[in-house]
Amino acid sequence: MENVIELQHVYKAFKGFELKDLSISVKKGFVTGFIGGNGAGKSTTIKLIMNLLKPDSGTISIFGMDYKKNEKEIKQRIGFVFDSNIFYENITLAEMKKIIKPAYRKWDDTLFNQYVDMFELPLKKNLKTFSKGMKMKASLTIALSHHAELIIMDEPTSGLDPIIRSELLNILHNLMQNGERTILFSTHITTDLDRIADYITFIHNGQHIFTKEYYKIEEEFAIVKGGTNLLDRDTEQEFIGIHKTNHGFRALTANKQRTKNIFGDTVIIEKPTLEDIMLYTKKGEERDAKSYS
Amino acid sequence: MQVIISNQSKEPIYRQIYAQIKKQILTNELKPGESLPSMRQLAKDLNISVITTKRAYEELENDGFIYSIVGKGSFVCEQNNEMILERKMKVIEEQLLSAIQNSKEVGIELEELKELLTLLYKEDT
Asked: In what helix (H) or strand (E) does residue A68 lie, and over which residues does it extend?
């Protein structure tokens, strides 16, 4: 399968934070959910993908091209939807369009008007009067009106109410119908990903932990609950992170089948959520910082 | 084509889709040659990711229930249905025979057995 985004051995260091040997790829025609806690490196990674930051070492290729030679060509084909408002506040959407339109060869006024109608956006009101949901829709309209093939969304659903979130996910489903578009969707609201994400890429502390098909997560990972008498130095090795109380333990395993073989019916095994995986990875990191992909 | 998925079920979503489409093929609700909705359309309608419907379709294809033509979509297979039905009938016959034998051993009459069967059949929906 074709990769639209490919990062290979990317390093980027700031004071007190670094991305370490990050190699990730995003497949064409699918939605990749990009998860990780605050400060995990999501935004830094997205800025690297957008060429707003340059890597210290490693290579980044987008649509199989390099920013050094093809920056303009690449940017023509990307649509970007931010979490916060990136527009000038004191102009209208119609004026905003006039500013942005000349930058894109494939700008499509008909499409722009279609989305404005569909999202019921006012063209003649100042952008500063827009609600959060309207700002997100305006940002999406701009991103879609130049026929972007790759849509990068940084926390698009944060701060939106459930109705608008659901609306957005329906729009994204519609965008994916022809199989030519690719979406990279970073989020904290992991339940949004249940409905749309094909792949999950998880980073933690500047490191790539895994990229997997979404359904594989519930096949491989599991939450295990049982009595603390079952735990010893050996059996604890089975888990990524363990939470112990006086009444028993709760832990995350990355090898559901092996855990089943070891513990049999003595434990309860349940489906994990993405939140569980994020949470237990953090819990387990003092003990073992290795990736388990 | 009706597909109802449950988020509470222990069964993975792609298995639920697989089982329901398979059932509709075996019961001839989906006729040989009939086209299935595209993976992307079904994903949208069920509000799930494309990769989930893709996996369900791939397994249906591997098991010989449907076939795909690139650029055209997926269709219900022709030849296998009768064979599968026949095979299923054979299994059912064998299982019924062993139930009959067991009944005879403990002296359960045909009427009683029929009643039991009816009851169990209706319970399992």
From this structure: helix A67-76
> What domain range includes position A235?
221-284
Residues B74 and B48 in one domain: yes
Could you tell me if A63 and A120 are in contact, meaning their C-beta atoms sit under 8 angstroms apart? no
Q: Per-residue pLDDT tens for B45-71?
A: 999 999 999 999 999 999 888 999 888
Q: Do A211 and A228 sit in the same domain of this protein?
A: no
- Residue B107 CB neighbours (<10 A): 7
Q: Is A177 part of the contact surface with chain B (CB cutoff 8 Å)?
A: yes
Q: What CATH number is associated with residue A242?
A: 3.30.70
pTM for the whole thing?
Answer: 0.80
Asked whether the predicted pLDDT for residue A78 surpasses 90, the reply is yes
Instruction: Say how far apart CA A156 and CA A138 lie, in whole Å.
Output: 12
A269 touches chain B (CB under 8 A): no
Q: Is residue B59 part of a domain?
A: yes
Shared domain for A179 and A260, answered yes or no, is no
Q: What is the mean pLDDT of chain A?
A: 88
**Shortest Cα distance from B39 to chain A (angstroms)?**
9
Residue type, B11: E
Quick one: B48 and B69 in the same domain?
yes
How close is the nearest chain B Cα to the Cα of A52, in Å?
30
Which residue of chain A comes nearest to B39, CA vs CA? A177
**Are residues B18 and B35 located together in one domain of the fold?**
yes
pLDDT digits (tens, 9 = 90+) for A171-184: 899 999 988 999 99
pLDDT at A189: 79
A242 touches chain B (CB under 8 A): no
Interface predicted TM-score of the whole assembly (ipTM), two decimals? 0.73
CB B60 within 8 A of CB B21: yes
